[in-house]
Amino acid sequence: MRWSLGGAETAVHEAWGAATASGLARRIRSGDTSAWGDHAAGVAPWLGWLRAPFEMRQHVPVLEGIARRCRRDGITHAVLLGMGGSSLCPEVTRRTFGAPSGIELRVLDSTDPASVAASAEGVDPARAVFIVASKSGTTIEPLAFEAYHWDRAVRGMGEAEAARHFIVITDPGTPLGDAARARGYRAVLENPEDIGGRFSALSLFGLLPMALAGVPLHPLLDRAQAALASDAPTRLGVALAALAHAGRDKVILMVDPPLSVLGLWIEQLVAESLGKQGTGIVPVAQEPGGVPAEYGDDRVFVYHRITGDLDQDAAALAAAGHPVLTMDVPETLDLGGVYMTWELATAAAGALMGVNPFDQPDVQAAKDRCAAVLREIEAGRAPADEREGLDAAVRLIGTVRDRDYVAIQAFCPESPAADRAAAGLRRAIRARTGAVTTFGYGPRFLHSTGQLHKGGPDTAVCLQLVGQDPVDVPVPGRPWSFSQLKSAQAIGDAEALAARGRRLARVDIGPDAAAGIAAITALLDGE
Question: Is the pTM of this model over 0.85?
Answer without folding.
Answer: yes
